[in-house]
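## tool: complex_structure
## caller: assistant
## args:
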Amino acid sequence: MSPTMTTPEKQSGENGSPETTYQSTFIPRFDIWEGEEELLLYGDLPGVSVDDLDIRFENRELSIRGKVQPRHEGERLLDEYGIGDFHRTFTVGEAIDAEKISAEMKQGVLVLHLPKSEKLKPRRIKVKAI
Amino acid sequence: MLSTQWQPMAEMNRLRNEMDRVFGRHGNGSGRATAFPPLNVWENDDSLFVEAELPGFDLDDLEIYVTGGNHLSIAGERKQPEHEGGAWHRQERAFGKFRRTLDLPGDVNSDGVEASFCNGVLKLAMPKAEQVKPHRIEVKAI
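## result:
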């Protein structure tokens, strides 16, 4: 059984820090895939540019923050979704090689590569015929 | 074991429910389900603007039509990246086909519609038809 990603994601409660652009913060939706070599996280962060992303990995805790720049001017006629910053935290049970974490962003989708530490990768044990 | 087999979602309803359940941010908390994608619409004197959050799409994946002056239709499909082996631990994002139509609050000039797509946010700028633009009435002093 592969154990690994415990995900007690926390809803960010803190609002109104000086640099936030919006009152509300939303929890972005994520897919998580685990392969032999790495964990892959895909997150939907529409409206977030690369420069407004803040990703930290510390103490097995991965924190992803995306700031959304204000948009919409003029008179609102239909208001079906709210706009705000994104924040989500994952606790990563697997040992991750923090130095090698990489991230890319394309069309509002964040892809995070979390390579597993060498010692945790599954190894094939060679059996000698004697 | 957390792994689940991915089942492409064909029906819109499920997609919609997923969206509402996970985001819980539509309709200003009224709890009313909205179609996918949720749209924001606003206007100024000259144009109507429609915006939708469509992360992971490209403009080429979308079909956008304005017909009959005020009928907007947006359709597209989003596919999940595929991986050999491994296991999905979490699948919150929605995939599949969608089509959303909307009757605009006024006629627009469909030849002048401009679509832009930035960081997964689609924005349509639609110039209002001349007859629905507000006209300033000149008042002559006599």
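## assistant note: The radius of gyration of chain B is 19 Å. The helical segments of chain B are 12-23. Handing back to user.
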